[in-house]
Each structure stands twice: as structure tokens, then as C-alpha cells.
Amino acid sequence: MKKEDLDNEGQEEFWGPPPSNHASQRAMDYNPNETERFNSVPRGWEKYDPTVVWLLWFFLAGVGAPWFYLGRPKYALVRIFTLNYLWIGFFIDVFGGLKKQINEANRQALSA
């Protein structure tokens, strides 16, 4: 056996361009729906603090404060006039709805 055969043992031949570790290639491969960690904005880059949003939700959700804070006045008015979807909206928020809205508002603020 040759030394080259030992070095390449167990490796399949690759036909095509070499894999790229370049940042632009990784950005093209980015899938935002892949996992939850890709759906959030990195710590320190948030325009809207999740703690503030949750405090507003806990104390002032009935008057739409968290959605006004997130820059969604139409959504806030719908929430106010429908009594927070007849109280079902509170449960939607607790089980993931508000977290998704915070992440979406931060992504929009980051891209603007």
C-alpha cells in the first residue's frame, strides 16, 4: 500500500467544487425555520427587550401596551376592541405567540 492510500483511506471521492466555509456561502445556506435558535436575534442586538414586553403584557395587555411598544398599533387596536380575542389571546401569548412577535419585531428592526 502507498502512503497516499493510507492518508485517504475511508474517504469518499468528492466530485464537484470543494465545500466552502466562506461567510456568504453560509448565509445562503441559512434556513430561518430550521430551529428556534435561528429564529431569534442574537443577545445584545435586540431593539425590543423581551423583559419589558413581558412586563407590559402582564400589567397592561388589556390596553394593548406590549403591541404598541413593539410598533404594531393596528394589532394593538384589534386586541383592545376584541377584548384580547375574548380572553383567548392571553393564552396564545403565553404559549409562544408573544415570543414570536418579539423575535419578528427585533428582526425587522435589525434589517431596517
By DSSP (H or I, 4+ residues per run), the number of helices equals: 7
Structural class based on helices, strands and sheet pairing? mainly alpha
Total strand segments: 0
Largest pleated sheet: none
Binned strand content: under 5%
End-to-end C-alpha gap: 60 Å
Percent range of helical residues = 55-70%
Q: Outline the low-pLDDT stretches.
A: none
As an assembly, this protein is single chain
Give the overall shape, derived from the CA principal axes: globular
Query: What radius of gyration results from the CA coordinates?
Result: 23 Å
Overall pLDDT, averaged? Answer: 75
**Helix/strand order:** HHHHHHH
Structural features, described:
The protein has 112 residues and is mainly alpha-helical. It has a domain at 48-111. Helix content is 57%, strand content 0%. The protein is built from 7 helices and no strands. The chain is globular, with a radius of gyration of 23 Å. The mean pLDDT is 75.
Task: Record the SSE blueprint.
Blueprint: H1 3-7, H2 23-28, H3 50-60, H4 65-69, H5 73-81, H6 83-86, H7 88-111
In short:
The chain is mainly alpha-helical and 112 residues long.
Brief descriptors of the model:
112 residues; globular
